[in-house]
Amino acid sequence: MGERLVSPEALMPEHPPPSAASPRPIPRPFAFHWGKGLVVEEASIETPYTEPTIQLLEYEDGSETLRFCYYHGPRFGRGPAMMDADALDDMREALQETPRLRALLKRLTED
After folding, report:
1. Are strands 75-76 and 64-72 parallel, antiparallel or unpaired?
2. How far is it, in rounded angstroms, from Cα 26 to Cα 94?
3. I want to staple 45 with a disulfide (CB 3.0 to 4.6 A). Which of 4, 66, 90, 103 is the partner?
4. Domain residue spans in the chain?
5. How far apart are CA 55 and CA 104, in angstroms?
6. d(Cα 110, Cα 21) in Å, to the nearest integer?
């Protein structure tokens, strides 16, 4: 038997713009079993199915981590963040409001 493909629409129905419904405050706390701190910057864009998001996490000891994640409506997504090439310009625009995130991402792409 052939493989049965499932459309993205069947897995994630469209939702109203999440940021309009419930804006997320910055800074806000996060906690993992290895440490806690604050989400100090966040850039996100709305797509038809999810809200791809890049966050700057600052731990209590001052160390920083980038988190690539997504939201589906008001809920945090537990899978990998995905963004198609058409969304890159929108994310670049969203990053204009996050100078520390932009600086770290530039380091990622510099030669």
Report:
1. antiparallel
2. 15
3. 90
4. 40-111
5. 11
6. 37
pTM comes to 0.80
CA–CA gap between residue 84 and residue 80 (Å, rounded): 13
Q: What are the pLDDT digits (tens) for 43-74?
A: 999 999 999 999 999 999 999 999 999 999 89
| Short-list 76, 91, 94, CA closest to 22 | 76
CA pair distance 78, 13, nearest whole angstrom: 17
CB count in 10 Å sphere of residue 4: 5
Q: What's at 53, amino acid-wise? A: T
